[in-house]
Specification:
It contains eleven helices and eleven strands. The protein has helices at about 10-20, 70-80, 125-140, 165-175, 190-205, 220-235, 245-250, 250-255, 275-280, 285-300, 310-325; strands at about 1-5, 25-30, 45, 60-65, 85-90, 145-150, 155, 175-180, 190, 210-215, 235-240. It has a seven-stranded parallel β-sheet, with helices on both faces. A two-stranded parallel sheet has the order 7-9. Strand 5 (about 85-90), helix 3 and strand 6 (about 145-150) form a beta-alpha-beta unit.
Length: about 325
């Protein structure tokens, strides 16, 4: 197939490019050219999706995969311009589009609505609602030809957010770790490479509609996640589990200092992926994701973009222990 990928040089887009190339597809990238790295055999068209789409006019592809769409007005531009140029529009969305979360919820759950639908400021509060409006723009133009993929937390090599990577580095460092919630609490995320394989496979199958895409295929707990990480990183960590009430009292559900963690009552780590599994979603073993991400991170000489300052962690651990002694 001939695939146009908007973005395609960073995290998710990079893996989609690699996955499509590995399956023999012809790939064209459309982006601003800020990242000079483009795999051999990939065509690049330089432009700007916000008002600079003219270089795409007159070209045709079998499908477009839109990886970096956040603002409805901007997504509308590419959706409308490519309406007759592609057979299918794939929009990489997020499970954050849902209004509320509960364990087992599927793709039919109500979507978030913004108080101000005209806002273009992407924040933690507006992110899900903006993505829902972006989905609506694609569906308005393409109808059954629209394919919406809603990932959960995406992890693995080249993850510039470091939300998953922080925990790998922290466990490898050893010592007493402030572990969030309970070792029995569920956790969901998907390796970007599995997300890429699933997305390209859906395009090949001519699929439409919306799919929750997270993992693993079977249940995973925080305790199992840390156990695997400790074994592969050769760390000597001791995990001190602080309950949700303590963490929320310190607003850690809002600060992002404990990446991937949300209060267990939220249901965010219990989304149903039954539809995606029936459509071919497969996830690699956790050990492979942990090992590959650790190897990638060890090659970087840069501070982590997420996580908790060691002094802050030590302070919270002291307070947790003091509280337990009272």
């Amino acid at each position: 197939m001939r695939l146009l990928i908007i973005g395609g040089t960073q995290f998710v887009g990079r893996h989609i490019v690699d996955g499509a190339m590995a399956r023999g597809h012809q790939v064209t990238l459309f982006n601003r050219g800020s990242n000079p790295e483009v795999p051999a055999g990939v065509e690049r068209i330089t432009g700007d999706r916000d008002g600079g789409l003219e270089p795409l006019r007159g070209r045709t592809w079998d499908a477009v995969i839109d990886t970096p769409g956040y603002v409805p007005r901007v997504v509308r531009q590419s959706a409308e311009l490519l309406a007759d140029a592609v057979s299918r529009y794939v929009f990489i969305s997020t499970i954050s589009v849902y209004a509320e979360f509960e364990a087992g919820m599927d793709e039919t759950a109500p979507l978030a609505r913004l108080r101000d639908p005209a806002t273009e400021e992407v924040t933690g509060r507006t992110y899900g609602g903006l993505k829902a409006l972006c989905e609506a723009e694609v569906q308005r133009v393409y109808g059954e030809r629209a394919l919406i993929v809603r990932p959960g937390f995406v992890v693995g090599p080249y993850d510039h957010t470091d939300r998953f990577t922080y925990w790998l580095v922290r466990v490898a460092r050893g010592g007493e770790v402030l572990a969030p919630g309970s070792p029995d609490a569920p956790i969901q995320f998907i390796d970007a490479r599995d997300l890429a394989e699933f997305t390209v496979g859906l395009v090949e199958a001519g699929a439409g509609g919306a799919y929750n895409a997270t993992g693993p295929e079977s249940s995973l707990t925080w305790g199992e996640f840390f156990e695997t990480t400790q074994r592969l990183s050769l760390g000597h960590a001791v995990f001190t589990w602080a309950d949700d009430h303590f963490l929320m009292d310190h607003r850690l559900d809002r600060t992002g200092e404990l990446p991937l963690w949300v209060p267990s009552a939220s249901g965010l780590h219990g989304v149903s992926i039954a539809k995606a599994r029936a459509a071919g979603l497969r996830t690699r073993p956790l050990a492979e994701t942990v090992a590959d991400t650790l190897e990638w991170r060890q090659e970087l000489d840069a501070p982590l973009a997420a996580g908790m300052d060691p002094d802050r962690e030590a302070e919270l651990l002291r307070e947790w222990h003091t509280q337990g002694e009272q």
